[in-house]
Specification:
Blueprint lengths: L1 H19 L5 E3 L3 H10 L5 E6 L4 H15 L7 E5 L4 H11 L7 E6 L2 E7 L5 H9 L3
Parallel strand pairs: 1-3, 2-3
Antiparallel strand pairs: 2-4, 4-5
């Protein structure tokens, strides 16, 4: 019985930690419907859209920086990645919706359905993304 109690205490401790420090993730989106779900989330907290090319070495570097930023706890907003080769229609839709010229790799911070900030190529980094998002949280 004591073992079960310890597990319960650890689980409750975990829940308290995740309330204070939410687990940040990178999820893949592929459709306009997926994006619309993400945009609903942006009404409560900033979200990061990451346009990634799976054939570009600069994009691979940006992916690594973002992933490391998530693992190290630097990023405070969820990241939604779309692979431009697989989701061309979605990529074009994002360009039109936010009136931001398409680049790849590219990061767009969205808050309350509006593009607040964007950057591309070698300017992508977890620290710069975090500077923008923490001001909105």
């Amino acid at each position: 019985m004591k073992q079960g109690l310890k597990c319960t205490e650890r689980y409750l401790s975990y829940l308290n930690i995740t309330k204070k420090y939410p687990i940040i993730t990178m999820k893949t989106i592929e459709t306009i419907e997926d994006l619309n779900t993400v945009l609903k989330e942006s009404s409560m907290a900033p979200v990061v859209l990451f346009k990634h090319s799976n054939t570009c070495p600069i994009s691979a570097g940006a992916y690594s920086k973002i992933t490391k930023g998530i693992e190290d706890g630097i990023l405070k907003a969820d990241v939604y990645m779309l692979i431009v080769q697989k989701s061309r229609e979605l990529s074009n839709y994002i360009q039109e919706k936010f009136d931001i010229q398409h680049e790849s790799p590219q990061v767009i911070v969205v808050y309350k359905n509006e593009a607040i900030w964007n950057t591309s190529h070698n300017s992508i980094g977890a620290e710069s993304i975090n500077e923008v998002t923490v001001k909105l949280i």
